[in-house]
Structures are given as C-alpha cells and as structure tokens.
Amino acid sequence: MNISKKDLVELGIFGSILGHIGDGNFHETILFEEKQRDEVEKCVDKMVFRALEMDGTCTGEHGIGLGKKDFLREEVGEAPIQIVTVDLTVAMSYAP
C-alpha cells in the first residue's frame, strides 16, 4: 500500500486507501482531472501488476467487471475464462 500511495503522490494525485487487513485487499479512491486520466490508468495498471507479482489477485470481494478482465487473463490464463464463458452461454440459453 505504501508503494501505491507513493506512486500517486509522485503524480500529484490524491488517493485515499482503504484496506481489509484479513485478506490483504485494498481499494483506492483516486481523485483526478480528465487530463490526468492516462497517467492514472497507467498507475492503476502498475498497482494491479504489482499485486500479481506478489502472488496477489486482481479481484476483490466485488469480482472483476469489465475493467479488469485482461488482468484476470494475466492472472489465471485463458482456459478458466473460456470455461466461465461456456457456462454463461449455456445458462443464458435456458434463461427466460
């Protein structure tokens, strides 16, 4: 968390960090101007890759959503993603 906070400070961007000590999971609320979006996205990518390098995960208690699907591929590979995709396709074929 300290390294991630330092990354934001170096960019001159405010970000609050809240964490779950029990599972090593943290969330950042990053306040930035639109003109800073590219820098912030690179910084967030760096945070996620850092977590993966430390045997962490790109997920949290809220799942991954569209924003982190590429990180999940990096973390678990393509095979689990394909299984979930097939499962969802089958499930949706039975949905009313």
Mean pLDDT: 83
Shape: elongated
Please report the number of helical segments.
4
Binned, the helix content reads 40-55%
Summing up helix and strand content along with how strands pair, one would put the structural category as alpha+beta
- From the alpha carbons, calculate the radius of gyration and give it in angstroms: 16 Å
Low-confidence stretches at least 5 residues in length (pLDDT < 50)?
Answer: none
Beta-strand fraction estimate: 5-15%
Sketch the topology as an H/E string, one letter per element.
Answer: HEEHHH
Number of β-strand runs: 2
Query: What is the count of structural domains?
Result: 2
Distance between the termini: 45 Å
Largest sheet, described in full? 2 strands, antiparallel
Instruction: Tell me the strand order in the biggest sheet.
Output: 1-2
Top keywords for this entry?
96 residues, alpha+beta, 2 domains, two-stranded antiparallel ribbon, 4 helices, 2 strands, 54% helix
Give a brief description.
By secondary structure, this protein is of the alpha+beta class.
3D structure, described in words:
The structure is a single chain. The chain is an alpha+beta fold and 96 residues long. It folds into 2 domains: 1-56, no CATH class; 59-96, no CATH class. The chain is 54% helix and 15% strand. It has a two-stranded antiparallel sheet with strand order 1-2. Strand 1 (14-20) and strand 2 form a beta hairpin. Helix 3 (69-76) crosses helix 4. The protein is elongated, with a radius of gyration of 16 Å. 4% of the residues are buried.
